[in-house]
Design goal:
By secondary structure, the protein is mainly beta. It contains four helices and 24 strands. Strands 1, 2, 3, 5, 6, 10, 16, 19, 20, 21 and 23 form an eleven-stranded mixed β-sheet that branches. A hairpin with a 2-residue loop joins strand 13 and strand 14 (233-234). This is DUF3048 domain-containing protein. It comes from Oceanitalea stevensii.
Length: 334
């Protein structure tokens, strides 16, 4: 992951000169500074990055599942709407690997568009055959408790199905690829150069709404991060840390009825992960309207400004909120 720099140096001519001709001093061109290597999913500088793949883990987000374990160490967390209008997380780990992650739950069809661009495995409890097949068809390796893969365990402190956890190192050891992921977003060199900081409007908080949950994000200038809450209550990890991120990206998305059915016979909602739509990018206590686009399931999301330039995020962690255009909303508090 080290990026080599080219050093260009000029040299003096070795040809003889005529008597009386003034000597010309050799010109030296300064070497081009070497680019600082960074973690691909956070843009944070790293001295010696370990060559390992990213791993995505499906994590429950209900009252019975909170506080979750390991979310505070994810590079990227995607929040998606599932049955009943509640949400689940797809948490992506690469630069940091917590010992344990969970509670782990089942796959959904939109996970293909989240995991496929990463190139690494998706960890799940299981899932409907229809959804398992669609995610595998996108080229995603599934590591599943129901399939008998190693690394999972049940906690005696909670009731099933909210008690399935995974040992991340053991789960990751089963990955079929070893290459690190490509960058999923564009990052500024420093937080002060993030697009929202340079061109956005001040904001103190974001208030989001899904049909059955209303997460929020409040800017903490001292911490230099957005801090998450669940309906006004601080969202904390099992370790007692308030969940936070340097960037919050809100994507307004279409949600359609999939061919799968839940236990009551209703259609399982599917977030459409390709196409284009409105977005809102929050970094550094400021927000910037943007446009998201994604040509295929295998391609990362692209964020662009009104002028068509790539949006540069602050180096650090990012939470992506997949908010339905017809059953959700976002309010910005100044």
């Amino acid at each position: 992951m080290t990026i080599a720099a080219l050093a260009l140096t000029g040299c003096a001519s070795s040809a003889p000169r005529e008597a009386g001709t003034p000597s010309t001093a050799p010109t030296t061109v300064a070497p081009t500074p070497a680019a600082v290597p960074t973690w691909p999913l956070t843009g944070v500088p790293v001295d010696d990055a370990e060559e390992r793949p990213a791993v995505a883990v499906k994590v429950e987000n209900t009252a019975m599942a909170r506080p979750q374990t390991g979310l505070e160490e994810a590079d990227v967390v995607w929040e998606e709407m599932v049955e009943g209008g509640i949400t689940r997380f797809n948490a992506v780990f690469h630069s940091r690997l917590p010992e344990v992650v969970g509670p782990i739950r089942s796959v959904r069809p939109m996970d293909a568009g989240i995991a496929a661009p990463l190139g690494g495995p998706q960890v799940i409890s299981g899932g409907q055959p229809l959804f398992l097949g669609s995610v595998q068809d996108a080229g995603v390796q599934l590591i599943s408790h129901d399939a008998g893969h190693a690394g999972f365990f049940r906690s005696p402190d909670r009731r099933a199905p909210h008690n399935l956890y995974g040992r991340l190192a053991e789960l990751l050891s089963q990955a079929e690829v070893t290459e690190p992921p490509r960058a999923q977003f564009t990052f500024a060199v420093g937080s002060e150069e993030a697009s929202a900081v340079l061109d956005g409007e001040p904001a103190s908080a974001l208030r989001l709404s899904f049909p059955q949950t209303s997460p929020g994000w409040t800017w903490d200038a001292d911490a230099g991060r957005w801090l998450r809450d669940e309906a006004g209550e601080p969202a904390t990890s099992a370790a007692g840390d308030v969940l936070g991120a340097e960037n919050v990206v809100v994507m307004r998305v279409e949600v359609v009825a999939s061919e799968g059915r839940d236990q009551s016979g209703d259609a399982v909602p599917e977030t459409v992960m390709t196409g284009t739509g409105e977005a809102l990018v929050a970094s550094g206590g400021r927000v910037l309207p943007a446009t998201w686009s994604k040509a295929t399931l295998e391609e990362p999301v692209t964020l662009t400004t009104a002028a068509g330039d790539d949006v540069a995020l602050s180096p650090g962690t990012t939470w992506v909120e997949l908010v339905p255009v017809d059953r959700g909303g976002v309010d910005v508090e100044r």
